[in-house]
Amino acid sequence: MNTVVKMLLTLLVIGAISGGLLAKIFEWADPQIKLNAQKETERAIFIVHPEGKKQEKVSGTTSDLYKVMDGSGKVIGYALPCKGNGFQGLVKLMMGVTPDLKKITGLTVIEQVETPGLGSEITKEGFTNQFKKVNPDPHIVGKKGAAESPNDIVTITGATISSKAVVKIMNEGLDELRKLKKEGKI
Amino acid sequence: MSKANSPLNDFMNGIWKQNPIFKQVLGTCPTLAVTVSVMNGIAMGLATTFVLFFSSVIISMIKKLIPNQVRIAAYIVVIATFVTIVDIVMKAQFPELSKSLGPFIPLIVVNCIILGRAEAFASKNTVVRSAFDALGMGAGFTLALLVLGGIREILGSNQLLGTVILPATVEPMLIFILPAGAFLTLGILFGTANFFEQRKKENARQKVIEANRASRQVALPVEQQNEGEEA
C-alpha cells in the first residue's frame, strides 16, 4: 500500500510540475507562433497578388478567404489558401484570382513533402507560372507533354501525380470560390 | 580508476568510444530522416543535446526520490517536458527550421539515446558526471549528424549550408537526398568506422604478440630450465 501511494504521489508531483512549466512557456510563445503563421499567410497572399497593397479577411463565409486591395483601396482579387493530397502527403497552396474569377493571378506552394527533385518541382516558377496563362473556366486540365487547349497545364516529367494534385486542388478551390460568388457572398 | 571516472573522460566517451550513432547505433530514425542538409543535422543535434542535458541532470537529481516501479514513466514525463519546450520555442523563434524538421522534434521523446542514457547512466551516477555524459553523447550525436548531413548535401545538391560548392558540371546525385541515400551513406560510414577500429585492434594485438615474443626469447632458457626440473 505504501509503495502504491508513493508511486502515485511521485508521478502526480512530476506531472504537475511539468504541466505548470509547459503552460507558462506556451503562454509566452503562443502570440509569437500565431504571428509567424499570420506573416506566412500574408507573404503568400502578396506573392499571388504582386500588385496588392492591403489584404483583409472576408467575413461571413466559412472559408479562409482574403480579399486583396491595391493602394487606392480597390479590390483587385481574392486569395484562397487550399490544400489536398499530393504524392506523399499534404500539399498546401495559396491561390490568387481576379474578382470575376476568370483569371488566376498567381499560385504559390506553402507546404509540401513531395519527393525532392521530382515532385518538389511544383514549387518552382516554371510550373506555377503556367497557371497565370491558363483559362480556368470550366476546369484546368493537367496534360503530359504539351498543352493542347487553353485549359491545359503541362505536367512535370516524373512528377505527374504531384502536378495533377496541384491542378485538382486549384479546381476545388475555384469551385469553392464560384459557389461563394453564386451565393453572393463575394 | 579515478581517471576513468573524470568528467572529461565521460565527455570524450560520447564523442567517439561510445558514440551514440557509430558505436551504440541508437537513434538512427531521426539520423536517417533529417540529414538531408547540414543545417537540419545541426539543428536536430542541438535540440537533442538540449533535451539530453536537462533530462539527464534532472533525472540524476531526483533518482533517489522515484520509486523503482515507476521510474521509466517518470523519466518519460521529464524527457517529454523538455522536448515540448524545444518544440514550442522553435515554432516561435525559428519557424523555418521547425517546418523543415517537422515531426522529428516531437519524436525526440522516443529517441532511445535519451532514455538509454537516463536508464544506463543518469540514474546511477552523480549530477556532474551525468551532465558531462549527456553533453558528450549530445556532441557525438551532433557530430555524426553533421558528417552525414554534409555528405548528403554535398553529393545530393552540390551545396554546403546553402552555398553552391561543386561546379555545375557535376550532376547532383539526387539519390543522396532521398531516403535510400541516407542508408547508403550511414552504411558506408559504419563500414569505415569499423574498418579503422579493426585495424587499430589488429595493430594492438600484433604489438602484444611481438612484445610477448621478445620477452619469451629472453625468458625461454629459464622456462626450459623450470620445465626440466618439473619433469
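The beta strands of chain A are 54-57, 66-69, 75-85, 90-97, 104-111, 141-143, 152-154.
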